[in-house]
């Protein structure tokens, strides 16, 4: 007998009956009656129940699997990375509460009262608890980018104009200077000056977590169209000059809006930005945001208007392998 | 609380992780990684995709351990995250099909790109065709069967992992087994002993519409 002989029988319904999925439902007695009264159903029942039992036995006999060594090594390395640092314990479980470092869209469970209070105290709009979660890392990040900017201007022989950026968070800058560009728990801000393309978007910079500000500002993958020494080529970097189209995105609040927009357009729940590179894409100023989400890691190239009107101004996206 | 052998329980380790114990989460992973790997690989079917899914899922679990409320076993929570990562990858693959390579190694639907690696057993051929039939199932049926029939989880736990009712798990498993029985030629009448051909699955009325008819139980 083949499935072709079951044409008069609802195989799915019969399978549900055999598998116990109809227990306690009106369909259970209906199918039982069909099996008792209809030869086609009876034959199908006898055949299918045996076949399903055989399949169940074969599935149960499949050999156990062991995670391959290379996957184990890769996993252990990933978990040892600073980006794997756990989020703080929620306020309900530990005090004092601290801002979350991950953007969690619609995660009301973590909109703890303490965060809301703090947001209002800072003059934020009501309901902006989600944004506040980024306040600390973004402020620290602003310090880092200000520091990087200062270094670029200094090397270029120009007067630094980064005081406004640095003033956004003096504490953040101090922290940034201590940590250089390594910012456990928050996105790393870079100004690599790399001119990414669709084919290189998913690659480099590849040392984002523990590298120094100088080394991390370079794209290390030779396949990336990067200036060989962006620290010495600030004009090409296009991120420090006064008419920098990306200047608005150095404002932590604006950068937050941009990341919000990316998360919204990604449509996959929370995103965890790992790095934000003030760079170029196909020759135009662009922000390169690398993040992980439920479905994997991505690199998004977004334009200078990212975050405006809730739009990400997406130029291109690429999965990161 | 400790497990029966005196070792700390998963919940203890998770609390230790939240308290800053750098080794605790790794120990949880070591305990469960093989089963998580098996679930991921058999659900996704592609080794690299499975590795990515497991890594992404465990990184998320590591970072968001504070969100674990203890209303399920830690291992159930980990499985749920891993399975969801796998299903998301499959759905993304369906939504954004890739261009098949000249050798046709990339499927455009939810079917695994390649069968999982074979193990050197004497039932190698049988295992191979069973795995292929499993890989050919709709993803919801496949995920349920992997958990219940292959990995041996109780229906209740599989329901918790997949976030559906127990009846839905039973239905998906039953319909998946029925499909596989047809595909594998396991249907036969009382005494004839004849086996169906492998194309018979096409005649089973369990396409997407039929397959979902009672999946929403």
Any descriptors?
heterodimer; A: 321 residues; alpha/beta; 2 domains; 6-stranded mixed beta sheet; elongated; B: 217 residues; mainly alpha; Rna Polymerase Sigma Factor, Chain: A; Arc Repressor Mutant, subunit A; 57% helix; disordered C terminus
Short description:
Chain B: One of its GO terms (molecular function) is DNA binding. Chain A contains eleven helices and six strands.
Architecture overview:
Chain B: This is RNA polymerase sigma factor SigM. Chain B: Residues 97-122, 187-217 are annotated as: Disordered. Chain B: It holds the Pfam family Sigma70_r2. The complex is a heterodimer of chains A (321) and B (217). Chain A contains 11 helices and 6 strands. Chain A has helices spanning 11-18, 26-37, 39-60, 69-80, 113-121, 129-156, 163-167, 170-179, 213-216, 234-237, 252-266; strands spanning 188-190, 195-196, 272-281, 284-293, 296-302, 314-320. In chain A, strands 1, 2, 3, 4, 5 and 6 form a 6-stranded mixed beta sheet that branches. Chain A is elongated. With 217 residues, chain B is mainly α. Chain B folds into 2 domains: 1-111, RNA polymerase sigma factor, region 2, helix turn helix motif (Rna Polymerase Sigma Factor, Chain: A, Orthogonal Bundle), CATH 1.10.1740; 121-217, Orthogonal Bundle (Arc Repressor Mutant, subunit A), CATH 1.10.10.10. Helix content of chain B is 57%, strand content 0%. Chain B contains 9 helices and no strands. The model of chain B is unreliable at 100-110 and 190-217 (pLDDT under 50). Classes of the chains: A alpha/beta (321), B mainly alpha (217). At the A-B interface, helix 1, helix 3 and helix 4 of A face helix 2, helix 3, helix 4, helix 5 and helix 6 of B.
């Amino acid at each position: 007998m083949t499935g072709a002989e079951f044409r008069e029988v609802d195989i799915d319904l019969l399978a549900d009956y055999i598998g116990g999925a109809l227990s306690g439902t009106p369909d259970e007695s209906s199918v039982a009656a069909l099996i008792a009264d209809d030869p086609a159903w009876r034959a199908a029942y006898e055949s299918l129940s045996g076949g399903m039992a055989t399949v169940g036995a074969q599935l149960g006999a499949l050999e156990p699997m062991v995670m391959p060594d290379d996957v184990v090594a890769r996993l252990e390395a990933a978990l040892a990375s600073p980006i794997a640092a756990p989020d703080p314990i929620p306020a309900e479980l530990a005090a004092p509460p601290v801002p979350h470092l991950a953007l969690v869209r619609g995660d009301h469970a973590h909109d703890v009262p303490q965060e809301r209070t703090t947001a209002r105290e800072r003059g934020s709009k009501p309901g902006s608890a989600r944004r506040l979660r980024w306040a600390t890392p973004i402020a620290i990040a602003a310090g880092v980018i200000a520091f990087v900017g200062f270094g670029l201007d200094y090397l270029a022989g120009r007067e630094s104009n980064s005081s406004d950026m640095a003033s956004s968070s003096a504490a953040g800058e101090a922290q940034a200077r201590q940590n250089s560009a390594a910012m456990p728990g928050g996105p790393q801000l870079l100004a690599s000056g790399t001119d990414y393309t669709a084919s290189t978007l998913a690659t480099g910079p590849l040392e984002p977590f523990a590298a120094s500000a100088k080394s991390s500002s370079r794209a290390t993958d030779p396949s990336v169209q990067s200036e060989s020494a962006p620290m010495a080529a600030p004009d090409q970097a296009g991120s420090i000059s006064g008419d920098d189209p990306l200047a608005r995105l150095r404002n932590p609040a604006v950068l937050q809006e941009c990341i919000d927009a990316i998360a919204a357009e990604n449509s996959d729940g929370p995103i965890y930005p790992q790095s934000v590179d003030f760079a170029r894409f196909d020759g135009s100023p662009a922000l390169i945001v690398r993040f992980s989400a439920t479905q994997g890691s991505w690199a998004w190239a977004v334009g200078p208007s990212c975050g405006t009107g809730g739009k990400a101004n997406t130029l291109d996206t690429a999965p990161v392998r | 609380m400790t497990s029966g052998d005196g070792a700390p329980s998963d919940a203890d380790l998770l609390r230790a992780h939240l308290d800053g114990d750098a080794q605790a989460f790794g120990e949880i992973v070591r305990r469960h990684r093989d089963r998580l790997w098996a679930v991921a690989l058999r659900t996704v079917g592609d080794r690299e995709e499975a590795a990515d899914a497991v890594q992404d899922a465990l990184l998320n679990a590591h970072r968001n351990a504070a969100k674990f409320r203890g209303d399920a076993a830690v291992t159930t929570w980990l499985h749920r995250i891993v399975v969801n990562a796998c299903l998301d990858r499959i759905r993304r693959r369906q939504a954004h099909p890739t261009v098949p390579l000249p050798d046709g190694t990339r499927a455009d639907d939810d079917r695994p790109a390649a069968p999982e690696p074979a193990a050197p057993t004497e039932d190698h051929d049988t295992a191979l065709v069973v795995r292929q039939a499993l890989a050919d199932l709709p993803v919801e049926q496949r995920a349920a069967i992997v958990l219940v029939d292959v990995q041996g989880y109780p229906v209740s736990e599989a329901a918790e992992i997949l976030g559906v009712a127990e009846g839905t798990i039973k239905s998906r498993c039953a319909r998946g087994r029925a499909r596989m029985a047809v595909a594998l030629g396991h249907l036969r009448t009382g005494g004839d002993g004849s086996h169906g051909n492998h194309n018979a699955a096409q005649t089973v009325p369990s396409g997407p519409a039929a397959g979902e008819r009672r999946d929403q139980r």
